[in-house]
Amino acid sequence: MRTERVRTVCPYCGTGCTLYLKVRDGHVVGVLPDPDGVGQGKLCIKGWSAHQFIGHPDRLRQPLIRQPGTPRGQPAFCQASWDEALGLVAERLLGIREAHGPDALGFFASAKCTNEENYLLQKLARATVGTHNVDHCARL
Fold first, then answer.
1. Which sign, positive or negative, has the C-alpha torsion 38, 42, 43, 49?
2. Sign for the pseudo-dihedral over CA of 26, 28, 34, 37
3. Tell me, what's the pLDDT at 139?
4. What fold, for 3-48?
5. Which among 58, 83, 104, 110 counts the fewest CB atoms within 10 Å?
6. Are 131 and 125 in contact (CB under 8 A)?
């Protein structure tokens, strides 16, 4: 059994620490810090467990849309395409804005995103939707 190392970026915060995923037979089995990366060969506790969710059976692999009026005991969600799911989200956000004004919407940024991604979220909120209701929680 041959183990490969695949260089990637830790998904847990916006710091950008690089790490190596240890891959054996197509499955991620561990993590090693990248000595040449931002973390200088160190990882936080979240970085060391950055691989555990990859093959988890409960991980969502495509969007789900809630089905209204689903009887109790039946699955309340059905699989959808990305275009269908994103279209539904846009339609609902526009509906709320039209019915109640832009300040009826709020956007919540994440410490798991890069500064650039958080910047884009606030631009979406302010320039496109027209609200200044943007918050960020760095305690994630």
1. positive
2. positive
3. 53
4. N-terminal domain of TfIIb (2.20.25)
5. 58
6. yes
